[in-house]
Amino acid sequence: MATHDLVIRGGTIVDGTGGETYEADVAISNGLIAELGKVQARGIEEVDARGLIVTPGFVDIHTHYDGQVTWDDEISPSSLHGITTVLMGNCGVGFAPCKPEDRDRLIRLMEGVEDIPFPVLSEGLPWNWTNFPDYLDSLSSRHFDTDICAQLPHAALRVFVMGERGANREEATEADIARMRALTTDAIKAGALGFSTSRTLNHRTSDGLPTPTLTASEAELTGIAQGVADAGSGVLQFVSDFNDPEKEAAMLRRIVEASGRPLSVSLAQADVAPQGWRKLLGAIERAMEDGLPMRAQVAPRPVGVLLGLELTLNPFSAHPVYREISHLPFEARVEKLRDVEYRARLLADAPDTDNPFLKVMLRSFGKMFQLDEAVNYEPPQDKTLQAIAAQRSVSPQEVALDLMLERDGRGMLYLPFLNYAEGNLEPSREMMLSRATLPGLSDGGAHVGMICDGSFTTTMLTHWVRDRTRGPLVPLEHIVHKQSRATAQWIGLYDRGLIAPGYRADINVIDLARMKLHLPEVRYDLPAGGRRLMQRAEGYTATILKGAITHRDGDPTGAKPGRLVRGEQHLNAPDIVAE
């Protein structure tokens, strides 16, 4: 007679503590882990996990599903990669609070910062909210294939309080700061898990204007952080250019000291200062040793742009000759690019733009690679387009065009622009192994036509645990701990991230031996027929959320037990969906 809802039999348990693996059964009842060990009772449903690993569900603390959750119940691509909880509202961008007259402004900001097209957002967002608690209320009745958590975005808050002055980056007055502090407290008490902001020139509206939060004063940032503290819970998330790492890190430390709230910052290796990340990480490690809750969010592979004829950019995007056909439908453009006469004109052309990214980065053939079926995110130097061109005795531009025309014009190129200054991922490995870092920066739900990094978790398992040949591997136990228990605890979710009795039954059953990343592909399934990149994986035998199997062998089952998580969650707390 069955006494459990689900039993996972005979798997190798990687429990999320970072400790050694062991073999055991896992019994699940009422959405919680009921037994761990040799389970005698049967389950209504059972999963044979012999020869497989069993991990907690993964918690991704850096996503941008703020729009997608209002129209979609599948939090993909993240949910396809073992992720059972996502935290959105990062980098200071989002859609609440928002007055009706500022809706287009916030859409243009998200379009510019996160490459989500204006028509997608303008058609998809229901805008049935004004303040942040209303936004959470609008999500509370929706069901998903992951749990979702929200943060209060600084840009939206600043424009809501200061209007045009906020958008134009004028300095906030004491009254402005007091108002933002109070609204922040309201948002956290309503269920936001934190507050986020951006201090980088890379974040601009689609009109090219800097994000409203770029030059916000330390007084403003401290006041808002104290608003988080006033609510008694919540984290702080920052992204910055860190042109002066020590000065910026010192300011962030003062904010943590003043507020007492945990703060994380984005950390990556930049080409312009390949060793600069060490200074910032060192400052965060010292703060941590001093007992301050500070961490760096790091990526397990290069942050890179995908280029192609079906995507936002390709190496010819700034060429006047290419612009002649850029408006044509995809198939017509591919046909034209195969025309010998047109091809000769294009290859003889040069970019015409003042945009440094288009002018320089899209000509960086010595850092550009083909992304093929093997999907290798640590490719060697002899695989660059420049190296291939030398081998073929042709120009790199010709190689780029030939490779993009493969697969009926859907060939993709990969341009790493962070974490790959030295042509390898040793900096990423060092960052990942630091006690002061957490995995993050996947940007799931964003950069839909240029980046597809919601698959970071699968890269951690395949490349770092199993496949890497260009340097040391990383222990499986370390990676699972960081991506489950460590990330869950950081954002105040103490009810998940461990395989132990009483914890949430958010679990992955993984066939690591056959795990594989597929090539990213383009889908046209967003509102207004919008395009987005999607990447699937093999090897996730089952993904379980709150005791329900949401994915089998990488395919959705249709189960949608996920809900909006409001605020910190503690073990044996009331059901998080009692709304």
TrEMBL record:
<dbReference type="InterPro" id="IPR050378">
    <property type="entry name" value="Metallo-dep_Hydrolases_sf"/>
</dbReference>
<dbReference type="Pfam" id="PF07969">
    <property type="entry name" value="Amidohydro_3"/>
</dbReference>
<dbReference type="GO" id="GO:0016812">
    <property type="term" value="F:hydrolase activity, acting on carbon-nitrogen (but not peptide) bonds, in cyclic amides"/>
</dbReference>
<dbReference type="InterPro" id="IPR032466">
    <property type="entry name" value="Metal_Hydrolase"/>
</dbReference>
<feature type="domain" description="Amidohydrolase 3">
    <location>
        <begin position="45"/>
        <end position="550"/>
    </location>
</feature>
<dbReference type="InterPro" id="IPR011059">
    <property type="entry name" value="Metal-dep_hydrolase_composite"/>
</dbReference>
<protein>
    <submittedName>
        <fullName>Amidohydrolase</fullName>
    </submittedName>
</protein>
<dbReference type="GO" id="GO:0005829">
    <property type="term" value="C:cytosol"/>
</dbReference>
<dbReference type="InterPro" id="IPR013108">
    <property type="entry name" value="Amidohydro_3"/>
</dbReference>
